Amino acid sequence: MTSTPEASLRRHTKAGMFMHWFNAACWLFLLCTGLGLIDNPELRPFGPGYPAALRGLFGGGGNLLLAHWLAALLWLAVWAGFIVFYLTRHVIPFLRQVAAIQVRRDLEWMLKKQIQMMLGYRLMAVLVKPLGWDGSLPEQEYYNAGQKLAAQGIIAGALVLVATGLLMLASKYLLGPGWASLVQWSITIHYLAALFTTVLLLVHVYMAAISREERPAFISMFTGKVPADYAKHHHKLWYDQAAGGDA
Amino acid sequence: MAVKLGMVIDAASCIDCKGCQAACKVANQVPDGHWRNWIKRGDEEKAALDRQGLRFQPGNCMQCDKPTCVAACPTGATYKEAKDGVVRIDRELCIGCGQCLAACPYQARYRHPQLRVADKCDFCAERRAAGLQPACVDTCPTKARVFGDLNDPDSPAGRLLRGKASVQVVNQQSNTDPNLYYLGDPGPADWPVQAKMPTPWQFWKSLGGPALEALVGLTGLGVIAMYGRQLILGDHDQPPEHASGHPEGGDHDQHA
Amino acid sequence: MASKQFMVSRRGFLKLGVGAAATATAGGLLKARPAGAQGGLKPGFESKFTVCDMCFNKCSAIARVGDGVVRKLDPNPKFLKSRGMLCAKGNAGLHQLYDPNRLKYPLLRVGERGQGQFRRISWSEALDLAAAKMGAIAKEYTRCGMLFMAGADMQSTFVHRFAEAFGSYNVISHESNCLLSNNRAFLDTFGEVPIPDVLNSKYILMAGANRFESLVTPDSIDLMTTLREHGCKLVVLDPRYTKTAALANEYHAIRPGTDLALMLALMHVLINEGLYDKQFVAEKTYGLEQLRTHVQSYSPEWAAGQTDIPAEAIRRMARELAAAAPAAMVYPGRRSSDYANSTQIRRGFAMVNALLGNWDRPGGLTAARVVGLKGGIPLEAPFYEDNPPERVDSGQARLMFEEEGSFKLTRDAALKGEPYPIKGFFAYHVNPMQTGANRRKTIAMLNQMDFVMVMDVAMTDTAWMADLVLPSQTYLERLDPASAQQGSSACACVVQRDPVAPAMFEAQPVFFVVQELAKRLELGEHFDFTVEEFRAAQLADLPDAPQALAEDGVYYNPSRLYGVYEGKIYKTKSHKIELFNQRYAEAGLDPMPVYTAPAQPPAGQFRLVVGRNALITQSSSTSNALLLQMQPDNDLWIHPDSAARLGVKAGQRVAVTSPAGQQVLTARVTHETRPDTVYMHTGFGVMSRELAAYGRGGCIAAVLVDAVDEISGNMAMHETFVQVAAA
């Protein structure tokens, strides 16, 4: 059951990787254009310069809005296609993984991971070891507890963004004045949901791309593979299942 | 001084003929049942009884210096034109959410039923671009409406504004500093309502926005802090067991 | 994005209108209103002069045209008579041009008269039929068996010309339902119908006229100017609290029909207190001594009992008028189709002005001036031996205007068939079904006709009753003759009309119709010219006019405004301004107006008075989508005390009943009318289902009783008493 350091496991399919990077590009574009669409002295988060510059770049606020909408619709369409074509292969397994929360285990993981990250290994050796914790974390499946929570939050945020975004789109092309109150709430909620998902994505980006420990996971988003060693230590339960199946 | 377009109106000259309203409807393709301008009137019954006369008050969007409609618009689709002070609507950017409608103390705005955008008087921007006066001003039989640069003492409106005592018609709770001035008694003055900023907008401004912006900021700071620590500590803070590092997992001890 | 779709739908409408007209079926083409058939001034638009036809004022205007579509109508700043304005109706002219309900093709009645069932026919079929019918009527009933009626339109002259060539004397205008009593009275006092110099007046007594609501250029605008800038005092007498009353310095809710009592009392004060212009009266008037005697019994105290205006107010008015004279006036007014003695009432107006010397001087009444426009191409009308000797309505009113006729008396004659039958009717741009009191009689008159042909822009109620309906071009599509305009201190001028938009559907000008009919009736030689040639003949004496019209849209021929009568005689029998009218005396009429108190409404009834506002021109605004947004219907103005007595509440539907008929409309309970008077706006309660106003309000013609002014033959509409009851 031990792995050789050179052995690797397939963690992502090509479609999965494409969706990841496509998603990342869309989120970034939508975030940037979306923030540029807010131009109100009492609301805009970055002052007047940013929206003005972005509108200048796109040739007017109308074009910026159009670009935001077209990107959002493209994102939605590709997702819709992906969901339809990969429903059983990807989507349902993914959702299962994301939903697979074991409260006690995952809570423990979250707590211990926090402490580990905050203190670092050297301090842990000094501070925690004497208390009886050897520094190990509960074994995790395909996703660890943090990944699962972040994914759930981002999915929820995305659904809210889609709903409110569509309402605003409909306001311009479809809806009568009776929908005004819903549309007005949509604007506020869309912004708040975008900020909420941005928080999660910030953590995601740090953990995946900046944090040295997760470097193999970051690389795997290009290669599709993780070292068996990494899998064994980070996603033991998945590793056992995947490596076992392979063997 | 910057150009500030406005109107100086002699309400006493208005005969309530509705020429300005008809001209505006045609010039701006204002849809059925909606109006960009108006003539307010006093209490006809009271006037008929006390025989003290009646005053008619022509008006339209007052192109305020402190426009609450602009404040209510999240995207700047409604904005105050820097070059002449006219409050304009970018029809491409506006999604017709209607937040500006209730924010106007003069109820000068409506939602265009076909275009689904906010609409209101812009002093006939198309006509001005063609060198014509706003339609209501051009057509007014008694020339009760006088238009021009209020900052220019030689413009028709500026001259009038300086020559005679004039008043603004405002709601005391929401004085938006309007740029329509009335010579002498403007007639009915109690009709403007209090500007109502929409609840979602208020929630964004006072609670939701700051809270989540703070959260994003803190998270960002956390990420930066972690990254900073990573930079400072470099590869030194590795799991104590071996440098290639797999700090997690139950098999931790096996390597020891 | 959305705005582009919007544009497409409008273009689609216009394409349908102009291009696909030939293949479309009548009535079914334009169900929806063109969303934006107007407005939208894009760079590169053209500006073309036109002359407004939304009322009788004929204001010069500028059409802003882009892509062949009229986008906006603006005032012509060089047109002094309108003082460079365009009213709501003028602005709404576009909605007449692009009215989806407008008449598009010749229509032949297929059902019963008044049922509104028509079949589209070709122009040649229509013209052949009309010529055959008119020929048959001429043969059977003489040529005078055809009745012609044409409204205040710049092509009406061609209808009159056709009638004359065809050989019928029976030509009537709209005016005998409107202003003839006033014209008669002033003509019989001053020898002409004067133009009030409102702009320079310092004191204006306005009785019945409602200049701030029913606009007359330049008077309506000048009135405000002189009030605001010249310190003029305006005193309004009206049973209704009109907008003019609301803006006046002084207002009295005069009892309807008693204006003459007031005028006689004013004259009483002016003469007895020696306030009249002694030199002027001595030099220029005839009959002061008779008048002095005549007015002795008409004291202010007596008049107060008649008019409900306090005696001291009457006395004060007389003194204030005298103090301001000659820059003062009793405003002549326009529509005077009120009472059986309206000519005498209006004589009272004229005589007060004469006593004060408010004549031919600044701020008073001024002489009409001549701009020098000729009559066009002369007509040598054929003589038809078998014709009767006189008009069908002659010999009843004592001093009827022969060239205007009397709608009321003509209709009575046609109904009786005496002195001879009237069996054919050609109406152009006139709508007596709405404007002629007692609609029931108008229907009866039309029903006894062998042939009724109506040409108009919209399916008016009169067209609704026709056998043959012809679609007229709107004024924006037409080339029209030149027209001379009068305008007090605004100079006399000439305007003309050129098309500013391509003609839509199969609409034609009435010139085309009469020319084609003339060809078919062997009268072609009388119409062997074009409108351009006719216009050139009109302008023959004005060599500078064509260039001025092209550059400014108006041609002025400045002439003396005041002192026109210096050293000249007046066109009256005495060659002076007649306080005592000798012709009246000879004709057995009162040479000076004698007051008889108007009958009072029987208990529980009201006098019905009618009028219009700045959004309504008689009935031609009833198909205008824009004007109807501002004036969606009419209601019955009734005083709160009267309403309470009847148990009628504001907004409730009420039946208004007179001997002429009944209409049901909404009650407007208001102090703006007297307790003994109810009021209705004109122009609603239409029968024609093809009009946008169908189903709205009540029709004045259906409840007004058709009394007649015994002197002028003008309709007298305010002699109507009505019952009002909750419906």
Blueprint (SSEs and pairs):
The complex is a heterotrimer of chains A (247), B (256) and C (727).
Chain A: E1 8-10, H1 14-37, H2 49-58, H3 61-85, H4 87-99, H5 103-127, H6 145-173, H7 180-210, H8 215-223, E2 225-227, H9 228-234, H10 236-246
Antiparallel strand pairs in A: 1-2
Helix pairs in contact in A: 1-2, 1-3, 2-3, 3-4, 6-7, 9-10
Chain B: E1 5-9, H1 19-27, E2 37-41, H2 44-50, E3 56-60, H3 68-72, E4 78-80, E5 87-89, H4 99-103, E6 110-111, E7 118-119, H5 125-129, H6 135-139, E8 145-149, H7 156-163, E9 166-167, E10 180-183, H8 199-233
Parallel strand pairs in B: 1-10
Antiparallel strand pairs in B: 1-8, 2-3, 4-5, 6-7, 9-10
Chain C: H1 2-18, E1 46-51, E2 60-66, E3 69-75, H2 88-91, H3 93-97, E4 107-109, E5 118-120, H4 123-141, E6 146-150, H5 156-166, E7 171-173, H6 180-190, E8 195-196, E9 203-207, H7 219-229, E10 233-237, H8 243-246, E11 250-252, H9 259-272, H10 278-284, E12 285-286, H11 288-294, H12 300-307, H13 311-324, E13 328-330, H14 342-356, E14 365-366, H15 407-416, E15 424-428, H16 432-435, H17 439-447, E16 451-456, H18 461-464, E17 468-471, E18 480-485, E19 493-497, H19 510-520, H20 531-538, H21 545-552, E20 555-556, E21 577-578, H22 582-586, E22 605-611, H23 625-630, E23 635-638, H24 640-646, E24 653-658, E25 661-669, E26 677-681, E27 707-708, E28 715-716, E29 721-726
Parallel strand pairs in C: 6-7, 6-15, 9-10, 9-13, 10-11, 12-21, 15-16, 16-17, 22-26, 23-25
Antiparallel strand pairs in C: 1-2, 2-3, 4-5, 4-17, 8-14, 18-19, 19-20, 22-29, 24-25, 24-29, 27-28
Helix pairs in contact in C: 4-19, 5-19, 6-14, 9-12, 9-13, 9-14, 12-13, 15-17
How do you describe this structure in short?
Chain B is α+β, with helices and mostly antiparallel strands and about 260 residues long. Chain B has eight helices and ten strands. Classes of the chains: A mainly alpha (about 250), B alpha+beta (about 260), C alpha/beta (about 725).
